[in-house]
Design brief:
Strand order of the largest sheet of chain A: 3-2-8-9-10-11-1-12
Radius of gyration of chain B: 18 Å
Oligomer: heterodimer
Number of domains of chain B: 2
Mean pLDDT of chain B: 93
Mean pLDDT of chain A: 94
Structural class of chain A: alpha+beta
CATH topology of the largest domain in chain B: Rossmann fold
Largest interface: A-B, 52 and 43 residues
Structural class of chain B: alpha/beta
Strand content of chain B: 25-35%
Order of helices and strands of chain A: EHEEEEHEEEHHEEEHEHHHHEEEEHHH
CATH superfamily of the largest domain in chain B: Nucleotide-binding domain of ferredoxin-NADP reductase (FNR) module
Chain lengths: 381, 286
């Protein structure tokens, strides 16, 4: 994909290709030097991982999601993208959980510090959804939009090929429609697919939006999509938008939260919150990291790594004398007000894309949409 | 009203997370657990620093901490850092000997509005280790002394033994062009000066509140009371600057640790004009 900050190119007229051509697409991407990452079944969930072939896609599977609950279920058909998002977001590939920054070696009294090389690997992200593509655009602004940037993120990000998928089902915790971040892909992609799996037909309506996407699409057995097929693809997205499990009207959320930094609801949610940090791990935009230094037993070699951190830990805000945010109330407030309010001041948008992961993967089912609604309702009285 | 402070930003480093290697030239004990290190950058010098800025110091194999620069900005080749040994990294720093390597990144953050304060009275209020990031400002205030009106240093520590830079403070006391008051919470028998909190010194200092810039650094609770007293004496919120402390891992606004509301303390601070953080300071655990 042609780099960060490229304005969304206008997609070409839609094409259509049969399910059998998906393997050809994978081969083509591999042939162009890409490592393929896509959805696959593992540990009772649909996760993103290396995939070697179409056979590794979760064909015929879907999921049921609600607060604190995720279950795989069988579909009645052979759809390969017929589910909502799982616990992983793509940040584990672009902004990985652990990244070494440098190694140092002591020679006598001298220390030589060597930066970790930036990765040159090219990743093809297969089956990325609108919400997650929006999340990458947000992380672009966080990690590469300021005067200092993360060179490792930038290097990985610049080399990705995006095969986006317009969602055909909404999960029980999805609320992208109300956040204007889905279910139709709008951010820059190379290829965008809509899966049609109905009446004995199994095909993908495809749009290419970059030169590389066009070249790859041209290499697949395809034909121009008919008007009916384009309409059918649009209907899939419309049906998904109409069946969102949750909603969070985004209007005025920033102002709502900033004028309620002192509110009894923080105590109420803190009584349920375990401060486990799951929400921050599964969130596709949460970017916080800490650093860890290590050394060998002789002290000759040492290194520093960056790893994901969470504002829910006590260590996160620790300064001599104690943690700034010692109470669960203050830590939940920090996470939610950062995500939905101060993110606008820092990066010009909400930090939430409505993917619903923080709701599904919260062990006690705390629901960010419900928390906002409760604070909003308290003002109506 | 003074213009808002310009953020002092060094040109983005090629790899801002990569420490350069410096070497300890001298170490001096200032107070119980408090040490001042003089570090010489081994690979050429770091960019010049402004008073109030900080560096990230690495002890290889142990870790990295933000430490304010406490030396004279006019001598950027000598990096002076005053460290209290309270955690693993600061303790390791305090044990370094002459010649030992130290990793250096910086300088980072905003500085004290020393330039903008020209022509006005300046009241410097410091608590404990808070004097360290203010000392570079004092050097600049005293160097071209005629550029300022009255200058007062109001300093409070727990006990006489905790007073930092004691010889220098005595030298300033002997000058006629700076008013120095030092107070301690708990005095020993031979302590000839005030006993009590640093805020009690504000009424002793002579300054014209309408044309005064106040620089405040110390524990957050001390700063809250000091700022309240300064405002009570007639100094406007827009004329009061304070330096905030938060956990920092990257110092370049990417790790997320130092956020306070929308501000990244490492990048938008640590020095803030009081009116810009007043609302946040009023909140607990923000």
């Amino acid at each position: 994909m042609s780099g960060i900050g490229t304005s969304s190119a206008r997609p070409d007229r839609s094409a259509i290709f049969p399910i059998e051509a998906l393997g050809t697409l994978f081969d083509a991407l591999r042939g162009r030097g890409y490592r393929l990452i896509g959805p696959t079944l593992r540990d009772g969930a649909i996760v993103y991982d290396d995939i070697a072939s179409v056979d590794e896609l979760p064909r015929g599977w879907s999921d049921e999601q609600s607060g604190g609950r995720y279950r795989l279920i069988r579909r009645g058909d052979d759809a390969v993208f017929g589910y909502a998002v799982g616990p992983h977001s793509w940040k584990r590939f672009l902004h990985p959980p652990r990244q070494r920054l440098w190694r140092a070696k002591r020679h006598g009294g001298e220390v030589q510090v060597t930066a970790e090389a930036v990765p040159e690997e090219r990743l093809a992200l297969i089956g990325i959804r609108a919400c997650d593509l929006k999340a990458i655009a947000i992380q672009d602004r966080v990690l590469t939009g300021g005067s200092y940037l993360d060179p490792y993120y930038k290097a990985r990000r610049e080399r990705i090929f995006v095969v986006a998928v317009n969602c055909s089902v909404a999960g029980g915790t999805c609320f992208c429609a109300s956040m204007q971040s889905g279910p139709k892909v709008t951010e820059t992609f190379d290829l965008a697919l809509t899966e049609l799996c109905d009446d004995g037909m199994h095909a993908f309506v495809a749009e290419a939006a970059t030169d590389e996407g066009r070249v790859v699409l041209a290499g697949l057995p395809h034909r121009p999509a008919t008007g009916d097929e384009v309409d059918a693809a649009a209907a899939v997205v419309a049906r998904t938008a109409a069946s969102m499990g949750r909603e969070m009207p985004s209007e005025g959320v920033r102002e709502l939260l900033l004028r309620n930094l002192e509110h009894p609801r923080w105590d109420e949610v803190a009584a349920r919150c375990l401060t486990c940090g799951n929400c921050t791990m599964v969130c596709p935009t949460c970017f916080c990291t800490t650093v860890e230094d290590a050394s060998d037993v002789t002290g000759v070699e040492s290194s520093r790594s960056q790893r994901w951190d969470s504002c829910f830990t006590m260590d996160f805000s620790y300064i001599h004398g104690g943690s700034v945010r010692a109470s669960p109330q203050s830590r939940y407030r920090q996470w939610m007000t950062h995500k939905l309010a101060t993110w606008f001041d820092q990066f010009g948008s909400s930090g939430c894309v409505g993917c619903g992961r923080c709701i599904t993967w919260c062990p006690v089912g705390i629901d960010i949409t419900e928390e906002v609604a409760a604070i909003r309702a308290s003002e109506a009285h | 009203m003074a213009a808002p402070p310009e953020p002092v930003l060094a040109a983005p480093l090629v790899d801002p997370m990569l420490p350069r290697v410096g070497r300890v030239r001298a170490r001096r004990r200032d107070a119980p657990l408090v040490f001042t290190l003089e570090i010489e950058p081994a690979e050429g010098s770091l960019p010049p620093f402004a008073p109030g800025q900080f560096n990230m110091l690495t002890v290889f194999g142990v870790g990295e901490v933000p430490i304010s620069l406490s030396g004279d900005p006019a001598r950027p080749g000598r990096l002076i850092h005053t460290v209290r040994a309270v955690g693993p990294v600061s303790t390791a720093l305090s044990r370094l000997d002459r010649g030992d390597p130290v990793g250096l990144r910086g300088p980072f953050g905003t500085g004290w509005p020393v330039e903008q304060a020209a022509g006005s009275d300046v009241v410097v209020v410091a608590g404990g280790l808070g004097l360290a990031p203010l000392r570079p400002a004092l050097y600049q205030l005293l160097a071209p002394r005629r550029r300022y009106g009255r200058i007062a240093l109001l300093y409070g520590t727990r006990s006489p033994a905790d007073i930092l830079f004691a010889r220098e403070i005595d030298a300033w006391r002997r000058r006629k062009d700076i008013e120095v008051h030092v107070t301690v919470d708990h005095a020993t028998g031979d302590w000839p000066h005030q006993v009590g909190v640093v805020t009690s010194l504000i009424s002793r200092a002579r300054f014209d509140p309408a044309r005064t810039t106040a620089l405040v650094c110390g524990p957050e609770v001390m700063m809250r009371f000091a700022i309240g007293t300064l405002q009570g004496a007639g100094v406007a919120s827009t004329q009061i600057y304070l330096s905030l402390e938060r956990n920092m891992k990257c110092a370049i606004g990417l790790c997320g640790h130092c956020q306070m509301g929308a501000a990244f303390i490492c990048r938008d601070g640590p020095v803030f004009r009081h009116d810009r953080v007043r609302d946040m300071l009023a909140l607990r655990e923000i």
